[in-house]
Specification:
This protein is mostly helical and about 130 residues long. It is built from five helices and two strands; from the N terminus they run βααααβα. Strands 1-2 form a two-stranded antiparallel ribbon. The radius of gyration is 17 Å and the shape is globular.
Amino acid sequence: MSDSRAFPLADILSVTTGRLLSRRHMAGLYDLLGYMTGQDLHTHQLGLAADRCAPALREQHPFLVGLTPPPGADPADLMAWLVESERVHGEALPVRPLANWERRDPIEDACDMMGAEKVFVVPVDR
């Protein structure tokens, strides 16, 4: 894949399965979603970014469609499943950025989510 960057499978599965499997925890999500969107995302933007990135990841790597952790897996079983998935599919995969992400303003997104009357923007001298 040209114009791609390798990401840990655990980070990718965190987006495609909705389970936080990244060994880098939230840093893995910020890194992957930020790369795919080309934007430094704020916490409240991660859900939308993940919703947009998950289908693109599945399109780039079709085997991800059926790769989901066993229902009700406890942490030990979840880790065993992840290790086996990495053994079968590799510890990292190349990922291309989204072609259709439109840069989003984090303040506007917060206003849209919570209602403009609940968001206060305070100018700060630098």
